[in-house]
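Field log, afternoon session.

UNIT: design team B
ACTIVITY: writing a sequence onto a fixed backbone
BACKBONE:
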């Protein structure tokens, strides 16, 4: 399964450490984990710099995880009358374990919109 209406915006940033990337899309059912950024390759890690996520559905409780189901960020609790929008730019990025894919996962079906920005960085750089 893949995100619906996914785009990969061009991100311009003066930092030179690593390769920038961004993911933008939506999903109606992330109850089965959905890969949103592939493994970067041996010796490289994904660094998550910004997360913007919305979820207007009760009981979806989305979160970011790696391919081994280790939760990186979230879950975000929502109700039908109290939807959540999370918009965080990390002062210090979340560094994932080397060569692991980034996934979105939810406890149940529900609409999720997301924008994730980060970079792929050589380990030890």
């Amino acid at each position: 399964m893949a995100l619906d209406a996914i785009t990969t915006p061009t991100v311009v940033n003066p930092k030179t450490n690593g390769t920038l990337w961004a993911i933008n899309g939506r999903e109606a059912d992330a109850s089965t984990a959905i890969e949103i950024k592939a493994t970067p390759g041996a010796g490289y890690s994904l660094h998550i710099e910004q997360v913007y996520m919305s979820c207007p559905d009760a009981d979806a409780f989305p979160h970011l995880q790696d391919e081994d189901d280790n939760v990186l960020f979230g879950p975000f609790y929502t109700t039908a009358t109290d939807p959540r929008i999370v918009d965080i730019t990390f002062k210090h990025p979340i560094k994932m374990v080397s060569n692991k894919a980034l996934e979105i996962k939810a406890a149940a079906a529900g609409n999720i919109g997301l924008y994730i920005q980060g970079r792929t960085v050589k380990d030890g750089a």
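LOG NOTE: The chain is about 0% helix and 50% strand.
NEXT ACTIVITY: expression trials, pending approval
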